[in-house]
Design goal:
The structure holds two protein chains of two kinds. Chain A is an all-alpha fold. Chain A is 74% helix and 0% strand. The longest helix of chain B has 41 residues. The N and C termini of chain B lie close together (11 Å). The chains are: A mainly alpha, B mainly alpha. At the A-B interface, helix 6, helix 7, helix 11, helix 12 and helix 14 of A face helix 1, helix 2 and helix 3 of B.
Chain lengths: 555, 105
C-alpha cells in the first residue's frame, strides 16, 4: 500500500550545493516500523554514549574539544561524518540518478578543498588555536573586533546550515517514518540539545563516528549489491543505464556551463569548506599537529570513497528504480507525464535500498538518514554555541577573564537557545524555498571566515582594521549578491530578471574580501598596526613548530 | 614566548630548513591539486564534449568517468604523500628545534 506523495522537488543546483533540502509539499506516510525500531536503537545507543560522555565532560576544554584526546583516525571519521550529511547522500545520488555524470562533477568539487586544507591550514590551525577558529584569527589582532566579526560569521553560517538541515529533516522524516512535520523537527531539536548540552564534543564526535560508520556500511552494501547485479562490470552497468536514460548521462550536461560560474563554484566549495566553523573546530579535538594531519588524510579517503559509492548508487537507481512500477509516482505522472519516482529524485537512493534489500534494508537506510541529520545538526550547534560562549562571552564581554565553568555554562545555555531557534526556524521555513540557504552559508564561510583566517596565518602585514573592514565587506557582498542573484531575486521574489546573473557569488565576494583586507591593512599606519605586524614573528614560530600550543588532557 | 626565544628559534638552521622545505612542499602540492582540478572544471566549461568521448567504439563508458575517478584518487594520494613526509621528516626537524629551544631556556 503506497500513499500518494506530492513532493515537487526543484532540483536546483544550489540545493545539491552542499546539503540542500527536500522542498515542497510532502504527504505523511504510514508508520514504517522497521525503520522506527532501528532508529530507536540508534537513539538509545547514542543517549548511552551521551551519558558516558557527560561524566567525562568536566572542564571547558572537555566540552569544546573532548579534552583534545581524539585520535587522527577517529577525527577523520568524524570530519567525514560532518561532511556526509543526509542531503549530500540523497542529493548527490539523486543528481547522479537524474543527470548521470554531472553528479560526479559536484562530488569532485566538494572533495578538492580537503587536500588544500591539509597543506595550508590544518597544522597551523592546530598549533595556534584552542577552541574556535577565532582564536587563530585574533591571535595577534585586537580581540574584541576580530572575535565579534568571526563569531558573527560563524553564527550566521551555523544558523543558515541549521535551517536547511531542519527543514530537510522534517520532510525526510515525514516521508520515511510517517511522523508529522512539527513532531519530526521538535524531535531532532530535542535530541540534539541533549547530545550537545550533556555530552559536549565527546558525545558529538562519537555520534558522528557511529553514524559515519553506519552510512559508509549501508552505502557500501548498496553499491556492492548493484555491482553484483552486473557481475562487477562497470561496462554493463553503464550500458544498461544508457539504454534506460540515453547516452547523455555519460558526459557533462550543462550544470556548469559558463567559465565564471565554474570558477565561482570551485572557489565557493574550496574556500567555503575551509571556512566552515564546525569543520574547523574538529582540528582542536586532536592532540597535536601530527594527528591533525592524519585526520585530513583519513577524512579525504572516506569522503572520496563515499562519493564513488554515491556515483554507483545513482547509476544503480537508474537501472533498478527508474521506470520500476513499484516506485512510480502515478499521481504525478498523471499530471506531468514522464516517469517521476515517489518523493522526487532525491529519494532515488532510498528506493534503491528497498530494491536491493527489501523492507528491512529500507528501514536501515531510513534510520541511517535520520541519524545523519541528528549528528550533523549536533556538530553545527556545538560550533555555534562555542562562538557564543568562547568568542562573545569569554573574550568580548568578559575580556578573557571568564572562568572555565561559567564559560561552559554559557555554552550550554547557548546550545539550548540555538536548538530552540533551529526548531522555530525549521517550522517557520517549512513551506519556503530554501534552495539558496546552504549556498549562502558557503558563500559567507568563503568570503568572511576563510580570508581572515588564511591571511592571519600567512600575511605578516595583516592588521585589525584591514581584517574587520575587508571581512565585513566580503560578508556584505556575499549576502547582497545572493539576494540579487537568480535564486532569491527571480525564483523567490518573483522578479523578471536577476540583477546579479550568477548563482554563485564567491568569485566576486571572496575577491572583495581579500582586496579589502589588503588595502585597509597596508594603509593602516597606527601604532596598534605596527605592534600587530611585529607580533607576527612569534605567531609564525608557534604555528610552524607548535611550541606553546595547547596539549591534550589525560583522562 | 619571549622575544629572545623567538629570535633564537628563527636563527636555528633547523627551523629555517623546516620552513623552507615545508612551504615549498605544501605549495607545490597545492598547485598540483589546483592545476588538475581547474583543468577539469575549465574543460567542462569550455569544451564539455572532450569528456564525453567514448573509451572505445563499442563502449558507452566515456573518458570523463576514469578522469573523474582519477581526480578523487589523486586528491587522496596527495594527502597521503604530504602526511608521510610531514610525519617523518618535518616532525623530526620540529623535534630538533624544540630540543634546542629547551636547552637554551
Amino acid at each position: 500500500m503506497v500513499a500518494k506523495i506530492f513532493l515537487f522537488l526543484s532540483l536546483s543546483m544550489a540545493m545539491v550545493y552542499a546539503s540542500g533540502a527536500l522542498e515542497g509539499e510532502v504527504e505523511q506516510q504510514p508508520l514504517n516500523m522497521s525503520a522506527i525500531v532501528m532508529f530507536l536503537l540508534f537513539v538509545g545507543g547514542t543517549l548511552g554514549i551521551t551519558y558516558w560522555a557527560a561524566k567525562r565532560t568536566k572542564t571547558a576544554k572537555d566540552f569544546y574539544t573532548a579534552g583534545g584526546g581524539i585520535t587522527g583516525f577517529q577525527n577523520g571519521m568524524a570530519i567525514a561524518g560532518d561532511y556526509m550529511s543526509a542531503a549530500s547522500f540523497l542529493g548527490i545520488s539523486g543528481l547522479v540518478y537524474l543527470k548521470g555524470y554531472d553528479g560526479l562533477i559536484y562530488s569532485i568539487g566538494f572533495l578538492v578543498g580537503w587536500p588544500i586544507i591539509l597543506f595550508l591550514v590544518a597544522e597551523q590551525l592546530r598549533n595556534l588555536g584552542k577552541y574556535t577558529f577565532a582564536d587563530v584569527a585574533s591571535y595577534r589582532l585586537r580581540q574584541t573586533p576580530i572575535r565579534s566579526l568571526a563569531a558573527s560569521g560563524s553564527i550566521a553560517t551555523v544558523i543558515l546550515y541549521l535551517i536547511a538541515q531542519m527543514v530537510g529533516s522534517g520532510k525526510l522524516i515525514q516521508l520515511l517514518f510517517g511522523l508529522q512535520y512539527e513532531v519530526a523537527v521538535i524531535l531532532v531539536g530535542v535530541l540534539m540539545i541533549l547530545y550537545v548540552t550533556f555530552g559536549g564534543m565527546l558525545a558529538t564526535t562519537w555520534v558522528q563516528i557511529i553514524k559515519a560508520f553506519l552510512l559508509l556500511s549501508g552505502a557500501t552494501f548498496m553499491a556492492i549489491a548493484v555491482m553484483a547485479h552486473f557481475d562487477f562490470s562497470f561496462g554493463s552497468l553503464f550500458a544498461t543505464a544508457t539504454e534506460m536514460k540515453g547516452i547523455e548521462i555519460m558526459s557533462p550536461g550543462g550544470l556548469v556551463s559558463d567559465p565564471i560560474s565554474a570558477i565561482s563554484l570551485a572557489i565557493a566549495l574550496m574556500f567555503g569548506t575551509a571556512g566552515l566553523p564546525h569543520i574547523l573546530m574538529r582540528f582542536f579535538t586532536v592532540g597535536d599537529a601530527k594527528e591533525a594531519r592524519k585526520s585530513v588524510f583519513y577524512a579525504t579517503g572516506f569522503i572520496g570513497y563515499f562519493y564513488i559509492l554515491t556515483f554507483i548508487i545513482g547509476f544503480g537507481a537508474i537501472v533498478m528504480v527508474f521506470k520500476n512500477p513499484e516506485y512510480l509516482d502515478l499521481a504525478k505522472q498523471a499530471v506531468s507525464g514522464g516517469s517521476p519516482i515517489l518523493g522526487g529524485n532525491n529519494m532515488a537512493a532510498i528506493h534503491l535500498s528497498h530494491a536491493v534489500g527489501g523492507d528491512f534494508f529500507l528501514g536501515f537506510i531510513s534510520a541511517v538518514a535520520f541519524a545523519t541529520i541528528l549528528a550533523v545538526v549536533s556538530g553545527l550547534t556545538l560550533a555555534g554555541a562555542s562562538a557564543v560562549s568562547h568568542d562573545l562571552y569569554a573574550s568580548v564581554i568578559k575580556k578573557g577573564k571568564a572562568d572555565g565553568m561559567a564559560e561552559m555554562k554559557v555554552s550550554r545555555y547557548a546550545t539550548v537557545a540555538l536548538g530552540i531557534v533551529a526548531i522555530l526556524m525549521g517550522i517557520a521555513f517549512e513551506k519556503q524555498n530554501i534552495a539558496f540557504v546552504v549556498g549562502l552559508a558557503f558563500a559567507i564561510a568563503a568570503s568572511a571566515n576563510f580570508p581572515i583566517l588564511f591571511l592571519s596565518m600567512y600575511w605578516k602585514k595583516l592588521t585589525t582594521r584591514g581584517a574587520v573592514i575587508g571581512g565585513s565587506l566580503g560578508l556584505a557582498t556575499a549576502v547582497m549578491l545572493v539576494i540579487l542573484g537568480p535564486i532569491v531575486w527571480v525564483q523567490i521574489l518573483g522578479n523578471e530578471e536577476a540583477i546579479f546573473p550568477y548563482k554563485y557569488p564567491a568569485l566576486f565576494s571572496v575577491s572583495v574580501s581579500f582586496i579589502g583586507i589588503w588595502f585597509f591593512s597596508i594603509t593602516d599606519k597606527s601604532d596598534n598596526a605596527a605592534k600587530e605586524i611585529e607580533a607576527y614573528e612569534a605567531q609564525f614560530v608557534r604555528s610552524q613548530t607548535g611550541i606553546g600550543a595547547e596539549g591534550a588532557v589525560d583522562h | 614566548m619571549k622575544k629572545e626565544q623567538v629570535e633564537a628559534i628563527k636563527n636555528d638552521p633547523n627551523f629555517q630548513e623546516l620552513v623552507t622545505k615545508r612551504s615549498t612542499f605544501a605549495w607545490t602540492l597545492t598547485i598540483a591539486m589546483l592545476v588538475v582540478y581547474f583543468a577539469f572544471i575549465l574543460t567542462i566549461a569550455f569544451n564539455p564534449s572532450a569528456l564525453g568521448a567514448p573509451l572505445s567504439s563499442d563502449s558507452v563508458t566515456t573518458i570523463g568517468i576514469p578522469i573523474g575517478i582519477f581526480i578523487i584518487v589523486f586528491a587522496f594520494v596527495l594527502t597521503g604523500i604530504y602526511v608521510r613526509r610531514a610525519n617523518s621528516e618535518f616532525d623530526d626537524l620540529t623535534a630538533k628545534i624544540k630540543k634546542t629551544a629547551k636547552e637554551n631556556e
